[in-house]
C-alpha cells in the first residue's frame, strides 16, 4: 500500500512497510528514494494501491503531468464557498470513479495554486474570494509582462543598446538602485561577466561618458545628492546690512599682503609687518584671517549650508566650495591687484580676525607684558596678493639678504623679518618634538634625491599636467610656521579663557593618534601645547566655529564663555567634531581617488605601454618617481625600502583605478637603496600620521604627509 502526504509544502508518496505491527501509529514507511522513516496516520491524505500498469516510481511523475492539464478556473468554479476535502472535489471534477492517479494530480494542483485555493489542513482547502483571485491573477499577468520586458531589455543591453525606458534611470541604477525594479534586474543580469559591473555596461552602451564621470557621480550622489549649487540667495539688502556692520569695525593701521597660489580664490590669511617704534629691531607681526563669522550667525541659512558641507572639496580640475561665491567675494582677503578685474588705487578694507605678535631682534615672539600676543576684530587694508607662482623660486635666504633685490622682490624687508622669525618658531617646535620622543624635522628644501611629495594638477580639456611643487621653500616655510603658531596661540587663548573650541590633538600612537576633540590637548607632532584650526574659516567649518568663539573672546574678554555661541559641554559642538572628522576624511579620500585617476590618465597620455622607474615603499607597493602614483609590484616585496626598479605599465582599468604592471628589473643595489631611503628620511623628517592642509596650496589642497607641512600633495 502507498500513502500520499504533504511535507514541506510538497506532495509526496511513501510505501507502507508491511511488517508485523504495520497498523501501529506512527506508520513505518519507505520513501521513493529508499529512505525509511515514520509517518503519523493523521498526516496521510490518501491510501491507495498503484495501478498495475504504472510503477510507483513513475506514479508521482504521471500525476504531475495530469495536474498541469487541470483547468484551475473551472476547478475554482466547481469548488463551493465552504471548506472542502480534495477527494470530494476530485469526484466533482473527474467523476465518481476518479482514480488514485487523478486524485493525486488534483492534490498536486490544489497544493500548487495558492492564488486559487487556501490550505486549511491536511487535504483540506478553501477557494480564494473572487476579488482576491482577480487581483492575484492580474498581478501574475503583470509579472509575466515584466519578465518578458526584463528579458528584452537584457538582450538589448548585451548588444550595447540602452532601452529608452532605462535612460532616465541611469544615475539611480549606478549609485542608488532599487534592486526590486525590472530595470535593475535587467541591468544586473546583463552586467554579469563584466569586471566593472553596471558601470562598465553603461560605458559599453555609451550613456556613461567616462570612468571619471562614474567616480565623480558616485561621490556627488553620496555627499551632494541635491547638487552642488546653493539654495540660498543673498539679497542686496542683506549684503548692505553686512557692509554697514563691517564698516563699524576699527581700521587696522597696517598694510597687509597674502601669499598664495595663482589660482587661489578663497584667500583666508594675510600678513603685515610693522616696526615697533619704541623698540629697535623689533617688529609687530600681524596674522590676519578672513572673518565670515561676522556675518554668518549660528543656525542661520548660511550656517546650515556650511554645517552640511563642513569643508570645501578639492580635487584635480575643480572644487566644491563650502560657502557661496557671494560670501567668499565679500570676505576673502582680496587686494585691489588680485587679478579679478577690479584693479584700483584704493586699498580695500577686508574684515578680519587678527593676531598681533611682537618679535624681538632675534625673531622670537615676546609672550608677556605690553607686547604679549593680542587678538583683534577689525578691517584690514589688503595691499597685495603675492603669488607663489611668481616669487617662490626668487625668494631665498640669500635674495632676502641682498638689498639690491628690493625692486625685484616686493615686501623684501617684511619677508626677511617673517623668515627670520619662522626659523625661530621652527626651532622652538623641534625642541618640543624631540622632548616628545620624535625626530626633529629639517627646515628648508628636501634632499633632491628624495621622492617629491607635493604636486600641482592642472586639467584642461581632459588633458592633465602634473608638476612637482617645491616643498620647504622660504615662502612655504613662512606660511607654514606662522599658521601653526597662530593656530596654537589661539588654541591656548581659548583654553585660558575657558571658551569651548575644537582642537586638533596628537598624542600617543595608534589609529586615533591624531583626532579632532573639544578638549584642549597637545599636538606632539607639531610640538605645541594646544592646536585649534582657526586659519581657514572660508573653507572649513571647524575654523568657522572656532572663529565665532575667538570673536567672543576678543570682544568680551573674561566674560566670553557666557556670550560665545557654544557654551561649555555643548552637545552640538561634540556632534560637529564627529561629523567633521568623517566628512573631511571622505572628501580627502575622493581627492586621493581623483588624483590617482589623473595619474593613470597621465601615463595613458604618454602612451601605453609606459616604461618608467618606481621606488619601493613596502610590501610590494612602489611609487612612480615622477608622479604621486602607487603601483603594486609583488616582485619587490622582498626588496629593501627605497630600492629603484624599472617597470612597464601595460594596461589601465579606469573604473577600478588599477594598472597592469610588468616588472622589468632592478636599478639600485640594496646598499644604494638604503642610502637613498635614509637620505629621504633625513630630508623629510618624521612623517605625521595623516593629512592636514592649511592655506598655502589652493590648486589641490592635497593630502599632506604631516601636520607640520601645510602644502604637500602626497
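Q: What amino acid sequence fits the structure above?
A:
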Amino acid at each position: 500500500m502507498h500513502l500520499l502526504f504533504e511535507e514541506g509544502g510538497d506532495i509526496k508518496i511513501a510505501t507502507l512497510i508491511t511488517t508485523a505491527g504495520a497498523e501501529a501509529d506512527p506508520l513505518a514507511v519507505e520513501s521513493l528514494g529508499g529512505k525509511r522513516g515514520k509517518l503519523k496516520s493523521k498526516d496521510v491524505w490518501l491510501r491507495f494501491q498503484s495501478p498495475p500498469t504504472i510503477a510507483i516510481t513513475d506514479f508521482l511523475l504521471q500525476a504531475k503531468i495530469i495536474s498541469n492539464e487541470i483547468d484551475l478556473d473551472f476547478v475554482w468554479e466547481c469548488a463551493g464557498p465552504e471548506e472542502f476535502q480534495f477527494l470530494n472535489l476530485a469526484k466533482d471534477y473527474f467523476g465518481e470513479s476518479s482514480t488514485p492517479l487523478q486524485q493525486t494530480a488534483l492534490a498536486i494542483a490544489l497544493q500548487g495554486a495558492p492564488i486559487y485555493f487556501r490550505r486549511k489542513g491536511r487535504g483540506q482547502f478553501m477557494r480564494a474570494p473572487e476579488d482576491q483571485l482577480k487581483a492575484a491573477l492580474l498581478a501574475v499577468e503583470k509579472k509575466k509582462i515584466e519578465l518578458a520586458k526584463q528579458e528584452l531589455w537584457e538582450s538589448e543591453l548585451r548588444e550595447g543598446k540602452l532601452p529608452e525606458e532605462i535612460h532616465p534611470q541611469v544615475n539611480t541604477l549606478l549609485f542608488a538602485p532599487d534592486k526590486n525594479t525590472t530595470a535593475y534586474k535587467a541591468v544586473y543580469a546583463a552586467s554579469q561577466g563584466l569586471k566593472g559591473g553596471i558601470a562598465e555596461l553603461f560605458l559599453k552602451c555609451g550613456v556613461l561618458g567616462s570612468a571619471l564621470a562614474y567616480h565623480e557621480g558616485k561621490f556627488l550622489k553620496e555627499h551632494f545628492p541635491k547638487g552642488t549649487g546653493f539654495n540660498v540667495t543673498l539679497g542686496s539688502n542683506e549684503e548692505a546690512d553686512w557692509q554697514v556692520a563691517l564698516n563699524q569695525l576699527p581700521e587696522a593701521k597696517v598694510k597687509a599682503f597674502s601669499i598664495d597660489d595663482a589660482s587661489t580664490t578663497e584667500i583666508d590669511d594675510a600678513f603685515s609687518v610693522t616696526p615697533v617704534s619704541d623698540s629697535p629691531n623689533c617688529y609687530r607681526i600681524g596674522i590676519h584671517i578672513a572673518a565670515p563669522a561676522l556675518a554668518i550667525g549660528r543656525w542661520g541659512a548660511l550656517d546650515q549650508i556650511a554645517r552640511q558641507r563642513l569643508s570645501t572639496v578639492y580635487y584635480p580640475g575643480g572644487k566644491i566650495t563650502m560657502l557661496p561665491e557671494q560670501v567668499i567675494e565679500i570676505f576673502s582677503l582680496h587686494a585691489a591687484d588680485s587679478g579679478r578685474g577690479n584693479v584700483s588705487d584704493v586699498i580695500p578694507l577686508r574684515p578680519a580676525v587678527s593676531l598681533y605678535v611682537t618679535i624681538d631682534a632675534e625673531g622670537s615672539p615676546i609672550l608677556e607684558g605690553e607686547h604679549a600676543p593680542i587678538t583683534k576684530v577689525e578691517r584690514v587694508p589688503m595691499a597685495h596678493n603675492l603669488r607663489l607662482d611668481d616669487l617662490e623660486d626668487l625668494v631665498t635666504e640669500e635674495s632676502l639678504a641682498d638689498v639690491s633685490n628690493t625692486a625685484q622682490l616686493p615686501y623684501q624687508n617684511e619677508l626677511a623679518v617673517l623668515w627670520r622669525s619662522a626659523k625661530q618658531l621652527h626651532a622652538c617646535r623641534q625642541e618640543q618634538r624631540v622632548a616628545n620622543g620624535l625626530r626633529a624635522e629639517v627646515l628648508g628644501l628636501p634632499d633632491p634625491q628624495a621622492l617629491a611629495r607635493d604636486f600641482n594638477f592642472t586639467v584642461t580639456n581632459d588633458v592633465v599636467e602634473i608638476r612637482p611643487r617645491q616643498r620647504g621653500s622660504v615662502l612655504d616655510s613662512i606660511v607654514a610656521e606662522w599658521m601653526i603658531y597662530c593656530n596654537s596661540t589661539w588654541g591656548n587663548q581659548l583654553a585660558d579663557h575657558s571658551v569651548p573650541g575644537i582642537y586638533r590633538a596628537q598624542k600617543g600612537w595608534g589609529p586615533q593618534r591624531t583626532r579632532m576633540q573639544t578638549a584642549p590637548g597637545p599636538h606632539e607632532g607639531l610640538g605645541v601645547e594646544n592646536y585649534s584650526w582657526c586659519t581657514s574659516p572660508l573653507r572649513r567649518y571647524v575654523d568657522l566655529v572656532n572663529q565665532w568663539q575667538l570673536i567672543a573672546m576678543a570682544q568680551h574678554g573674561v566674560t566670553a564663555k557666557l556670550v560665545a555661541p557654544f557654551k561649555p559641554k555643548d552637545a552640538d559642538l561634540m556632534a560637529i567634531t564627529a561629523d567633521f572628522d568623517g566628512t573631511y576624511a571622505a572628501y580627502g579620500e575622493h581627492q586621493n581617488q581623483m588624483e590617482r585617476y589623473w595619474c593613470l590618465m597621465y601615463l595613458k597620455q604618454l602612451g601605453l605601454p609606459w616604461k618608467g622607474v618606481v621606488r619601493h615603499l613596502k610590501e610590494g607597493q612602489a611609487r612612480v618617481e615622477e608622479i604621486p602614483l602607487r603601483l603594486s609590484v609583488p616582485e619587490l616585496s622582498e626588496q629593501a625600502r627605497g630600492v629603484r626598479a624599472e617597470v612597464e605599465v601595460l594596461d589601465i582599468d579606469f573604473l577600478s583605478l588599477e594598472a597592469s604592471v610588468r616588472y622589468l628589473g632592478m636599478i639600485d643595489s640594496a646598499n644604494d637603496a638604503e642610502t637613498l631611503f635614509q637620505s629621504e628620511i633625513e630630508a623629510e623628517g618624521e612623517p605625521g600620521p595623516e593629512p592636514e592642509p592649511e592655506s598655502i596650496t589652493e590648486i589641490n589642497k592635497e593630502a599632506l604627509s604631516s601636520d607640520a607641512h601645510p602644502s604637500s600633495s602626497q
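Q: And what stands out in the fold?
A: The CA atoms of residues 537 and 544 lie 4 Å apart.
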